[in-house]
Amino acid sequence: AAYTQAYLAEQAQRVAAAMAVIAPDADHLYTLPTAERTRWAAALPDIAGTWAAAADAAGLPGTDVLNAYVAALQAQGADLGRDWSQR
């Protein structure tokens, strides 16, 4: 539990630092339309599936972890561009 909390705190600090760098030029940022993000995501190889299969082959619950992770992100409203748990 302590490691998880420390990891999450570090990630929050990294995000805050990155946003502070981006903020002065925020008006120059461009957000891809949903359809374009979906197209880009679909063009990527099955990165998550490859990771899950390797973990499964090593006797670890890769597919279960991937499915739970994707479900948790989707439950929070994350737009992943594609459902990485589908192969």
Question: What's the structural blueprint in terms of helices and strands?
Answer:
Blueprint: H1 2-22, H2 34-43, H3 47-57, H4 62-75
Helix pairs in contact: 3-4
Give me some keywords for this one.
87 residues; mainly alpha; 4 helices; flat
Describe this entry's structure for a reader.
This protein is mainly α and 87 residues long. It has two domains: 1-29; 31-87, no CATH class. The protein has four helices and no strands.
Helix content: 55-70%
Number of helices: 4
Estimated radius of gyration? 16 Å
> How would you state the average pLDDT, rounded?
91
List how many beta strands DSSP finds. Answer: 0
> Which residue ranges are poorly predicted, with pLDDT under 50 across at least 5 consecutive positions?
none
Question: Which sheet architecture does the biggest sheet show?
Answer: none
Describe, in short, the structure shown.
By secondary structure, this protein is mainly alpha-helical. It folds into 2 domains: 1-29; 31-87, no CATH class. The protein contains 4 helices and no strands.
